[in-house]
Amino acid sequence: INRKYDCEVGFVTMNYPLLATKIANQDSDLKYRVCLNVNKNGFRMNPCKDKVLDKIKYAKNHLTAMSIFASGSLFPDEAIEYITSVKGLNSYLFGSSSITNVKKNIF
Asked: How many Cβ atoms from other residues are within 10 Å of residue 29's Cβ?
């Protein structure tokens, strides 16, 4: 896809270490972006928080962290302080079920 369409591929994954390993074994030249779970509590970080963080250290692709508030179990300041300390992440996102929660988390 990179060569044929001159664009980057994007993935959303619940197991970044497995995805990164499989891609490296198939096509080491693939330029891709990944959205993966990263948060202080290790919520949905599969197979475990330590393995995800270790793989992030060596990433050469663009990584976007999701679930940064660990499904509401972290206060925004605590979550953002943690997520911005993780080296190797390029961007962050959060989802919310209501405008009230959005305002609570960003204002």
From this structure: 6
pLDDT, tens digit (0-9, with 9 covering 90-100), for 73-104: 998 899 999 999 999 999 999 877 788 877 87
Cα Rg, the chain, nearest whole Å: 15
Pair of tokens at residue 62? 């663009």
Paired with 33 in beta bridges are 10, 62
Question: How far, in Å, CA of 14 to CA of 18, rounded?
Answer: 9
This prediction has a pTM of: 0.88
Q: What is the DSSP string of 50-70?
A: HHHHHHHHT--SEEEEE-TTT
Beta partners for residue 92, in sequence order = 65
Nearest 5°: phi and psi at 77?
-60, -45
